[in-house]
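Bench log, entry 3. Co-assembly request; chain sequences pasted below exactly as received.
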Amino acid sequence: MSDRDDDLDREDDEEEREEGEEDDEDLDGDDDDEDDDDDDDEAEEDVRRPKSKKRKRRKPKGSIFIDDSADVVDSEESDDDEENEDYLVNDRELDNFDYSAERDALDDRRKHLEMDMRRRQNEDMDAEAIAENFKKRYSGRAKASSFRHAGDNVASRMLMPSINDPKLWLVRCRQGHEKTLVMTLWRKYMEAEDQSKINIKSIFTRENLPGYIYIEAREKKQVDFAIENVSGIYAQAVKVIPVEDMVACLRIKKKEINLKEGGWVRVKKGKYGGDLGKIIEILDGGASVRVKLVPRLDTSAKDDLSARVGDKRKTPGSNLSVPPQKLFNPEHLSKGQYSKISGGYQFQNEIFDLDGYLEKDFKLSTVEIDNVNPSLEEITRFGSSGTAVERSEDLDAIAAHAGGVGGPSVADLFQVGDNVEIFKGDLTGVTGRVLALDSENVTIMPKDAGGLGAIRVDPKDIKKRFDEGDHVKVINGIHVGETGLVIKVESNVAVVLSDATYKPIQVFIKDLRGRNESSAPVTQQSIYDIDDPVQISPSDVGIVIKVEANNNSISVLDQWGNVTKVPAQQILRKIDTKNSNMHTATDANRRTISPKDNVLVKDSGRRAVVIYIHRSFLFCKCREIMEHGGVFVTKPQNVENLSGTQNGGQTFSRPFAPIGGGGGRGGFGGGGRGRRDPLINATVTIVGGPYKGYLGIVKDMTASGARVELHTNSRTVTVNPEILKVHGSSGPSRPSFDQESSRYGGDGGRTPGYGSGSRTPRRSDGGITPNPYADGSRTPGWDSGNKTPYGAGMSGSRTPAREGWDSGSKTPARTLPDDDDDYAFNRGSSSNDPETPYNPNTPRYDGETSFNPETPSGYGMPQTPGSYPNMGSVAPTTNIPNTPGGNPATPYNPTTPYNPTTPYAPGAMYNSGFEQANTQTQRLENWLTTDIEVIIKPYRGNSYKSGAFDSKNGVIRAVETPTLARVVMLTEGRTVESVPIEFLQLTKLEKKDRVKVLGGPRKGQEGELIAIDLEGLVKFSSGVFEPIDMRFLAKIVS
Amino acid sequence: MLSNVRIIRFSKELTHTIQLHPRFFGAQLRESLKKRLYDEVEGTCSGLFGYIIAVIEIVSIGKGVLQTSSGYAEFLITYKAIVFKPFKGQVVEGVVTTVNRMGFFADVGPLQVFVSAHLIPGFLQFDANANPPAYAGETQDMQLIKIEKGESLRIRILGTRVDATEIFAIGTIKEDYLGPQQEW
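Structure output for the full assembly:
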């Protein structure tokens, strides 16, 4: 191909392009241009025809101006740009026409020469360079044609206005009518008979300068002429804009006003201030809008309409109480109060549509158009009228809008590691992970896009992507701060199951953030967290069930079950849960409950976890309950402890304070740190030192010794605990055993069957070590922060948890088999068979239940029980270390003298189980003695002499054998009978009775019963006063 | 019904450190350690391994090291345990514990799974009047299906939230072969 042909082809290409552009131009150009063009063309044709075989229909006029200045290589590009500029300066061209036509001819010739020259140069270049060259040229061209921006390139600087150009005049006009006035002026110009007379170049107005229009003209008189007789323009105020400011007037701020019907606005002030509205109509050419709002009707207006209507003298204070949003409902009003108009109702001078929404006109300046950020909740208020499609479109629009101008910055929107999806552009549908962010672009690594590598995309083109099951955090909106699992993802909205409330919440995807992201921001949340116990007032405590988004207020469920929203500042303090773990309560089965225990709520049958115990209020949390985040308040009596593995076990593993100087005290100090000492509140006798013989109550345990309040003179003295002898309990929780203490010592401090139910509490290693497990389990557990104390004997308490596991409990508690030996055995043999330890046949739960009352924790003072020999489980006197006591029936050995009735009946306090325990306590003693009054009762269904003497009182006159007494009946003619011990019970005592002590160190002594409390205070003949367990006292009949 | 519920379990070798009070130093020391181990690890849940369901074997008990400050002895115990860690996408079988309008909870062994109403097939509708509350409906082949408390069903785990002491999962039955199973 010759140079020539080549050249022609190229020109053809260019022409085609230019033609296309010229078509555009024709559409845009006005009448003046047409004339110019024709002349122009003729001139061109003269020059061109000899060279080009193909006739050029037109030559773009733009080139007329350019060639002087344009660089040759960039000629096409410059052409184009200049062409664009041309639209703007058409009027100017008019003035320069003659001159430019001539120059064009000359320049055209020169241009062709240069082109030939360049072609020769091209031949010298290699193919690659040519390709490069072309690429450069055409890519530049494409850009230029698609992106027409006046301010950005070199050539446009040449077009800066100078003093030779027409001036810009600023004219005052009526505010709000700028656009209509511009149109009016344009029409005036178009309709003028002599347009040259007006001869203004352009008119425009600026959005951000209301009340002014700009007119471009050479002289003021042209302006005056143009605005003459146009109403709304204030002719006296015409100012000229300095040349240097002219460009600024035309600089378009890139501010899109997203004003379209169906869009959202937010009212700035007034009654509806802050409310979301939907644009239903754009009025006055965009100066105001008709907005649909959820009405805030003053409900009182219904009652007193006449007084309200037209009452403009509303005090400003009345604005403080804005009526709640509520749809207008004519049915709630009487006919006369509103009038029906087409497509709606009129009420209180407002117009409501048929759906009950308020339709109101707002000036554009009184509504917020950008940064509306409607929340889902607000939109759903409008949702009823719109179809689903409409609604989802709305959401799309909102989501898109929020990502656009005025929205949060890139860094706010995305984070490194976020999963995103491209939804615009060529790569639509590609998903990937954010690798890096900068101010404008997001670099993402596409997933499954083989070999594509990292790509940079516009943040507006991507959106976050979440899959069902992702754990996310809400970073915006009313649910901000909540975390949850994604249940469902619709186009722009995700349904998230809140972790706190287990309620599904709807959130925009843009407002979510993956929770496992690497760069988790440390957002300082409120110091109060959900489920924290807090002190609301000196008397009230509550559990935090919700921390409001702004961290300013907190919803608290108090102990009365009320939910209140409290400002964070008003909360007195957060209760330290470490200490509050000491708070305990007693459940329906009289077992101790502590925080974190699993409990069964009896009335609802639900399982729950104790969060906090406040006096007799249990704060529990149950996931299955939806309201208040699953937290509820109940009474301890309403629950059953299921755990026992947690803190509940501690009471059982409490070491026994060795009594009577038995020598086991060592275990005491080691384990008791940080907990209440079992001796506290115990009535003790001081058996040594200066206070020897004094009776008192232990008030406190300190490092230096026990603080004992003496009975005699109410002084409190500090005594070495070693020289204290416990007399008995001062409360119902602690049966007396002072008489037993000697026996205790003999056992070496061993505790018979402490802690657990009566089944298998006994440790087989018996008296060797005093309760190693009890103490040990507690101490390490306590010190190491381990929440699962264990003790050999406490297995009973765990059973319920085990039960829970079987029925599908969440966290199976490890349960111990029945007794230590079993345990060890099972464990040892089961290493290859994991099922063995779970032998479901172990009926421990039942056993525990039936013997539950014997658990000492049931008696009111949960801190201390367990630290005393448990009267409930086994009587101290029966304590034979080698007998594991695994059979609950053994205590009822029928051969043992049985004394079923306690003479003194604190029956209201002791339940049957405890009474049973008491009788066991006494059962082995040789309590039969002479001169005491007894009553004959049936025993185990048998009656002495077929019941002939039942409920008859008698006096023991002689003891024939330790189990057989000769009783002289006090009635029936004083018959003498030999009655076995099991049919004999002691009679009820009264004050001032002469009594005989049947057991304990004072066994056999006689005295007078001075007072009856839980113990009886006996004045012995020696003059000594001593409290004695009532069960050990019998009435003397002389 | 319960015995039909299978949990996918893994056996895993783990270690645990126990500090033992000196009073246990005696003939029963090993027993004490074992008991402590069972008590302290079984039924717990760690984010890494999931629920430790049961200790199946004690591999070794390390030599006790006395702590000079406290007198306690520290033992490192290596043991094998059955662990259960739910994974996303895993299909498990569970027993329904609670049914409400938002969905239902099911227990899969120690794990609690929530199946939202969104993730229950459309033909199953919540019946608030039923006692106990249930999701009920008919399948295409006219079989009546009812999901109520105690029902066993098959669930695919969609996502998990792993806390320090528990794992919570959401699941779906909105797929083929999920939900209540015929052969049960």
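Chain B has a mean pLDDT of 85. The CA atoms of residues 31 and 44 of chain B lie 21 Å apart.
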